[in-house]
Design a protein that fits this description.
The protein is α/β, with parallel strands linked by helices. It has two domains: 244 residues, Type I PLP-dependent aspartate aminotransferase-like (Major domain) (Aspartate Aminotransferase, domain 2), CATH 3.40.640.10; 119 residues, Aspartate Aminotransferase, domain 1 (Alpha-Beta Complex), CATH 3.90.1150. The protein is 43% helix and 15% strand. It has 14 helices and 13 strands. The strands form three sheets. The chain has a seven-stranded mixed sheet with strand order 2-10-9-8-5-3-4, with helices on both faces. The two termini are 34 Å apart. This is Alanine--glyoxylate aminotransferase family protein. Belongs to the class-V pyridoxal-phosphate-dependent aminotransferase family.
């Protein structure tokens, strides 16, 4: 059957029908009073989602664009930063910083392991001259399925006194509790095609007052991603440039849905789907790539030893029209990843696990009892 794909990857994520329908409306003028009202509602709901009183700035870009904006607005060429990396996206931020002439101290952790906050603490405490301007961290490393201990890392950054903390929350914002103001996070970037439940195309950046002070001395070149004009426009329920109007319609609807569900319920749903997926995979005799205590709420990485991960993905797509993600860079061909971020329900998790059982049986995986995966997931859901 055509057009029946179940998208179980960490992004883009499935889009609710209400959001899709909202995006089909005829565009309106982006300088009109009607659109200003929409922006005003969106901005208030973005503050609610980010748990901040600061303006959350919206740019027309992917999560990578939001992260670039979050780096170039608050740093200068020659500045020294720490980039903690335990996966593809941590490495990307180090590459990005170096592209702008920023001196980057890479803290490289084995892929699949958690960033040890003590390493960051030691480096910050050794910086007696306060030369480190920022620590850049990927909260949810989707290339490996690891959720890093941002709260502890941030505490060490705060003890340093001078450094900013710049956070890639692309696949954690809207999936796990991230109290920006309570923790005092300085720059937090995310993207629309993840927990926001809308298509790709919008990036979001939350900025602290401390970061805005750093903005005043930043000398890196910027124009479209200069966040100063975005901040001024946000206070007037406007935008400095033409936004993707129909995506904004979708964002308005998605944020309304999220407010109706409530933050605690959203976080609990993601935690439940994560547990159900992980316990089901283990019940099927497949090893997980990330440890239980640091499991991403966005994606579960599976490292099978008895079947080819790429064959699992291929048969899942061909027979059941279910899309799973593969490994990236050094993990290509070694893992497959099951997404459970955004508009994913218990039904979706049970569907993908039952299909996975059938695929494993076809590929000759013998280390499982038929029905064990679905039974394990069902036990988690029954705890409600």
């Amino acid at each position: 059957m055509e057009n029946n794909n179940l998208l179980m990857i960490p992004g883009p994520t499935p889009v609710p029908e209400k959001v899709l329908l909202a995006q089909t409306k005829h565009p309106i003028g982006h300088r009109s009073p009607e659109f200003s009202e929409i922006i005003g509602e969106i901005n208030e709901n973005l503050k609610w989602l980010h748990q901040t009183q600061q303006e959350v700035l919206t740019v027309t870009a992917s999560g990578t664009g939001a992260m670039e904006a979050g780096i170039i607005n608050f740093l200068s060429a020659g500045d020294r930063v720490i980039v903690a990396s335990n996966g593809k996206f941590g490495e990307r931020w180090a590459d990005l910083a170096e592209a702008f002439g920023i001196k980057t101290d890479r803290v490289n952790i084995t892929w699949g392991e958690v960033i040890d906050p003590e390493i960051i603490r030691e480096k910050l405490e050794a910086d007696t001259n306060k030369e480190i301007k920022a620590v850049i961290v990927t909260h949810s490393e989707t290339s490996t399925g690891v959720l890093n201990d941002l709260e502890t890392i941030n505490r060490h950054v705060k003890n340093h006194g001078e450094a900013l903390i710049i956070v890639d929350a692309v696949t954690s914002l809207g999936a796990v509790n991230l109290p920006i103001d309570e923790w005092g996070l300085d720059v937090v970037a995310s993207g629309s095609q993840k927990g926001y439940m809308i298509p790709p195309g919008l990036g979001f950046i939350a900025v602290s007052e401390k970061a805005w002070q750093a903005y005043e001395t930043s000398t890196l070149p910027k124009f479209y991603f200069d966040l100063g004009p975005y901040r001024k426009s946000a206070t007037k329920n406007s935008t400095p440039f033409t936004p993707p109007i129909n995506l904004m319609f979708g964002l308005q609807t998605a944020l309304r849905m999220m407010r109706e569900e409530g933050l605690e319920n959203i976080f609990a749903r993601h935690e439940r789907n994560t547990r159900a997926t992980r316990e089901a995979v283990q019940a099927l005799g497949l090893p997980l790539f990330a440890p239980d205590h640091a499991a991403s709420r966005a994606v579960t990485a599976v490292a099978p030893t008895t079947v080819d991960p790429e064959k699992v993905r291929s048969v899942m797509k061909k027979q059941f029209d279910i899309s799973l993600a593969g490994g990236q860079n050094e993990l290509k061909g070694k893992i497959f990843r099951i997404g459970h971020l955004g508009f994913i329900s218990e039904r979706d998790v049970l569907t993908v696990i039952s299909a996975l059982e059938a695929v494993l049986a076809e590929l000759g995986h013998e280390s499982m009892k038929p029905g064990a995966g679905v039974a394990a997931a069902t036990r988690v859901f029954a705890e409600l």
